[in-house]
Automatic annotation (TrEMBL):
<feature type="site" description="Raises pKa of active site His">
    <location>
        <position position="144"/>
    </location>
</feature>
<keyword id="KW-0808">Transferase</keyword>
<feature type="domain" description="Formyl transferase N-terminal">
    <location>
        <begin position="4"/>
        <end position="181"/>
    </location>
</feature>
<dbReference type="InterPro" id="IPR001555">
    <property type="entry name" value="GART_AS"/>
</dbReference>
<protein>
    <recommendedName>
        <fullName>Phosphoribosylglycinamide formyltransferase</fullName>
        <ecNumber>2.1.2.2</ecNumber>
    </recommendedName>
</protein>
<feature type="active site" description="Proton donor">
    <location>
        <position position="108"/>
    </location>
</feature>
<dbReference type="InterPro" id="IPR004607">
    <property type="entry name" value="GART"/>
</dbReference>
<feature type="binding site">
    <location>
        <position position="64"/>
    </location>
    <ligand>
        <name>(6R)-10-formyltetrahydrofolate</name>
    </ligand>
</feature>
<dbReference type="GO" id="GO:0004644">
    <property type="term" value="F:phosphoribosylglycinamide formyltransferase activity"/>
</dbReference>
<comment type="function">
    <text>Catalyzes the transfer of a formyl group from 10-formyltetrahydrofolate to 5-phospho-ribosyl-glycinamide (GAR), producing 5-phospho-ribosyl-N-formylglycinamide (FGAR) and tetrahydrofolate.</text>
</comment>
<comment type="pathway">
    <text>Purine metabolism; IMP biosynthesis via de novo pathway; N(2)-formyl-N(1)-(5-phospho-D-ribosyl)glycinamide from N(1)-(5-phospho-D-ribosyl)glycinamide (10-formyl THF route): step 1/1.</text>
</comment>
<dbReference type="InterPro" id="IPR036477">
    <property type="entry name" value="Formyl_transf_N_sf"/>
</dbReference>
<dbReference type="InterPro" id="IPR002376">
    <property type="entry name" value="Formyl_transf_N"/>
</dbReference>
<comment type="similarity">
    <text>Belongs to the GART family.</text>
</comment>
<dbReference type="GO" id="GO:0006189">
    <property type="term" value="P:'de novo' IMP biosynthetic process"/>
</dbReference>
<feature type="binding site">
    <location>
        <begin position="89"/>
        <end position="92"/>
    </location>
    <ligand>
        <name>(6R)-10-formyltetrahydrofolate</name>
    </ligand>
</feature>
<feature type="binding site">
    <location>
        <position position="106"/>
    </location>
    <ligand>
        <name>(6R)-10-formyltetrahydrofolate</name>
    </ligand>
</feature>
Amino acid sequence: MLTVAVLISGTGSNMRALLEAAADPGFPARVVAVGADREADGFAHAEDFGIPTFLVPYGQFPSREAWGEELARQLDVWNPDLVVLSGLMRLLPPALVDARAPHIINTHPAYLPEFPGAHGVRDALVAGVSQTGASVIVVDDGVDSGPILAQERVPVLPSDDEHTLHERIKPVERRLLIDVVRRIATGDIDLAAVAAPQTT
Ligand code: GAR
């Protein structure tokens, strides 16, 4: 059974979908803890499922590195096989990424490498594209630059604003995330192989 810790910053609606999937005894992964960098509304979902939570408030640390050290300590308590960033709106410091790589994945509301960063939905709208998407990637030391595990296109409608487009992307993210976690748990996705440097 693959053990998973989820990190969030906000509402955690995608995380809730993962918690619902993982509540099925037939699902090959279980969520052991949910952490956040701020008092996140999504903690309520964890509580609904009886999953422990931990808070590492970014603003209370003198640097990203110091925050990351405490986050690493909290993760070590649960020592999950996989860390899922599900709306964590902070870059992890390299020391934390390097300690757990390649076993950290991230969902992103755009068709990477298009529109990386904190405003993937807004940036797609501003660019005026007719389609954007959703991606699940392996986290590396860059900004949304790791190997892509799954992605799917989502059309942009002329009537879309940031909210309506994001709400249409999220169900796709949820489906991709649940599928990727399942495939990691069953060994169908080998993160070490995906993240290994390519040799020709
Ligand atoms: C999701 O769309 C996720 O991909 C995005 O935040 C949203 C969280 O929604 N993450 C990023 O943009 C990270 N760069 P939720 O809190 O409702 O699950």
